[in-house]
Amino acid sequence: xxxxxxxxxxxxxxxxxxxxxxxxxxxxxxxxxxxxxxxxxxxxxxxxxxxxxxxxxxxxxxxxxxxxxxxxxxxxxxxxxxxxxxxxxxxxxxxxxxxxxxxxxxxxxxxxxxxxxxxxxxxxxxxxxxxxxxxxxxxxxxx
Length: 143
Description:
With 143 residues, the chain is mainly β. The chain has one domain: Alpha-Beta Horseshoe (Leucine-rich repeat, LRR (right-handed beta-alpha superhelix)), CATH 3.80.10.10. The chain is built from no helices and twelve strands. The protein has strands spanning 4-6, 13-14, 28-30, 35-38, 52-54, 63-66, 80-82, 87-90, 104-106, 111-114, 128-130, 135-136. It comes from Selaginella moellendorffii (Spikemoss).
């Protein structure tokens, strides 16, 4: 039944429990400003009502590593996705192009590699895309 889970700006350690993926009614998940680490669980892709996912270190930081799970493309109601200031690597999943409601994406200050997926052009509502301070290469998509 939980719709909002805000655990920002604490001293939480360890990883994000995979069991959060069972919170199917979850609309807002904020884990920023902690000392969380490990991979972002693929199971978060089961939270299909999620509108905002904020996992960054705007204050004193998380250290999420690994890649951005492709299952993020299942979050069809997502409008805000902040994964900045972590240690995420790998490529940006093309499945982000499935998220037509996205208005803000911030993946800055990570170690993401590869190109910018052309599928992001399908995100008609996108107003902010911050990919600064990564290891991206290739061409900027035309659209």
